[in-house]
Amino acid sequence: MAADRGKRTRGDVVYDSLRADILSGRRLPGERLKFSDLAEHCDASMSVIREALTRLAAEGLVTNEPNVGYAVTELSPDRLAELTDARLELESLVFARSITEGDLAWESRLVAAHHVLEGTPFLTTCDPVRVTDEWAEAHAGFHRALLAGCRNSRLFQMANGLRDEAELYRRWSQPLGSEKGRDLAGEHRRLMEAALARDVDCATAALRDHISHTTKLLLAVSEQLGF
Question: Which of the residues 4, 55, 81, 121 has an alpha carbon 20 to 30 A from that of 39?
Answer without folding.
Answer: 4
